[in-house]
Structure formats: C-alpha cells, structure tokens
Amino acid sequence: MTLCPELEIIKEFYDAAESECIYQRLLQEQNWPDNRYTVAGRQFILPRLQTWHADAGIHYSYSNNLLHTRSWTPLLSGIREKVEAFLNFPFNSVLVNLYRNGEDYVGWHADNEPELGEQPFIASLTFGVERQFCFRHKKMSETGRILLHRGTLLIMQPDFQQHWLHSVPIDKNVTQERINLTFRKVIPSNSQ
After folding, report:
1. pLDDT tens across 143-163, in order?
2. 36: left (phi over 0), alpha (psi -120 to 50) or beta
3. pLDDT over 50 (residue 23)
4. Euclidean distance between CA atoms 11 and 154, whole angstroms
5. How far apart are CA 47 and CA 157, in angstroms?
6. Residue 36 forms beta bridges with which residues?
7. Do 86 and 152 touch, CB atoms closer than 8 A?
8. Would you say 93 and 54 are in contact if contact means Cβ atoms under 8 Å apart?
C-alpha cells in the first residue's frame, strides 16, 4: 500500500459535535429520491441514494445518466462557503451520497467526466459512520486505503483523477449510515 501524493486529508474539518449535527440534519432534510435510473432503455438500481445540487445552468452526468439538478439548501450552502473559504477555490455543485449501510457502495471509477474539465479539483466531506476510501493507480500496481472518519475533508488534487481510480467498497460489518458530500466545479456546457 502507498500514500497518494495527490490526496490530502484534513481531519476534524468539522468537530464531532458539528459533524453529528450536520449528519442528522442531512438525514432529515434531504429529500432522497428513488435510486433507480435508466440507461439505454435498461433500468438499474444505484447501490446508494444521492442528490445533486448546483448553481443555475449547471448540469452533470456520469455513465450517461443525467442527474436531476436541485437548488442549494441553506445547510449545503453554508458547508460550501466553509469549504470554499478553506481551500480558496470556488465550487458550483455538490453530489450528496447516502450509504445506508455497508451494502451500499461505489465501485472503481475516476471522476473524469468532460463536464469537470481535464484536471478536476474535488473536495469530499464525510459525515456519519466511518468507511474505507480505496484507491489504485491506473498503470502501476500501487494501491492504498484511507479510513474516513466523520468530519474529515478529503481533497483530491487535479492530477488524482488522471492517475488513480477510487472506490468505497462493500463492508458487511458496517450497519449505520454514511453521508458524503463531493464538491465539484462543473464547466458550463456553453464554455466547453
């Protein structure tokens, strides 16, 4: 296993009390949609629940699945402001994932959709139960994993998506929920 130079961890970006408060509010305030989606006429079940929030005119899709854009909630806007101020970087969208237990996961992937540009800078916040964040190099045999605790800010530097894949694997020992916020800067389609 290796440490990845294109990842940075900020532990306790939110302290335990703040993290718990945000976690409970997200559980109660998010209107979690059905996790079924259709690609090329076939229906799939997403192994987690998610919502997509963005500035007006910002659209995003992955695996040819256009996400329904929602407005920013006051809670998400406040978190966004804190993350932007800390990183001195503007984000225009956030993907909110709810992993209901260890059966929910995200498979190996890179966040390299054209809408994110050639070198996306992504900030990821964890609330709720801790989960493993795994990564592996696309061309070499290097692998690694990080246990993400509540309140942790994970920063994926621009080169990370070019060189690495990442996942949150199934963990049958996990029985509680985790909520992950992934802040991104999507390039508007008229700017591409």
Report:
1. 999 999 999 999 999 999 999
2. beta
3. yes
4. 8
5. 26
6. 45
7. no
8. yes
